[in-house]
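ok trying this again, last paste got cut off
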Amino acid sequence: SVTLTVTDNSGNVSTCTAVVTVEESTPPVISCPNDTTVIASAGSCNVEVNNIVPFASDNCGVSTVTYRLIGATLGIGNDDASGIAFNKGVTTVWYTVTDGSGNADSCSFDVTVLTTVVPPDSAYADNDSICTGAGNIQLMYSVCVMVEGGQARWYDDAAMINTIGSGNPLTIPAPAITTTYYVRFEGACDT
């Protein structure tokens, strides 16, 4: 409280007490990085993303910065989301800055994670000239990077609808007619 004293020209004095409240209503300011796209290493479904720090300022000082992740990756935390493993797909990062008076500002940007798969450089059968009904053949592939948690699935049609099994090698009965086989890597985050 503040005591106010007033004296007139005749020497009369009067006092009163007043409460002075200083309100800080200027919100802080936050700016986010630009949208970013990163590529996970071959076979991986996620990647650690760094250098996504927001810039925050306030006339009386920043109290807190928090983040919220929505989309392919979910999460919440304090300060900066750098160092988090983001999943394949698009994640929106929301930053919120709050000052000591409860004033706030927010911004957002997207992190897009792309995955890569290195397909086999060759797929082949262990025997390409067999007689009808002559036992089994083995289908194999070589030199590749499988997607995390993935498997090689084999098909006997170019549309890859009719699966005949999975693995490397895959043993199947010898076909009765000339047949072309297809292999595709399938997993939790990529095909």
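PB: full thing came through this time. The chain has a mean pLDDT of 85.
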